[in-house]
From TrEMBL:
Name of one Pfam family that matches: FeS_assembly_P
Coiled-coil regions listed: none
InterPro entries: Fe-S_Maturation_MIP18, FSCA_dom_sf, MIP18-like
Domain of life: Bacteria
MIP18 family-like domain: residues covered: 12-85
Name of the protein: MIP18 family-like domain-containing protein
Amino acid sequence: MNEKARTTQEIKDDILAHLQTVIDPELGIDIVNLGLIYNIELDDDGTCLIEMTLTTIGCPLTNILADMVESALKDVAEIKDVDVEFIWEPEWTIDRMTRYAKMALGIH
């Protein structure tokens, strides 16, 4: 049986679902709901670029979170390699958090 190729949107949705399993160790909320993911790109060679930020510059968890992102995406069939790039502009604010994350952290 021939498997139908997934659409770009289906792959992106799958990537986001996998990224939601990456829990920020300090806040206990996943990095997607925290609004830490700024951009996702997947090229034709299977390299997935994740542009993300952290809640504070100089956060000691940079390498740990990058490893967690790479690990979370290893099961996405279309991804051969993951490149995590930390960016600081635009600066992260609580406005990037989903309603779920705000409620979980008691922010109104």
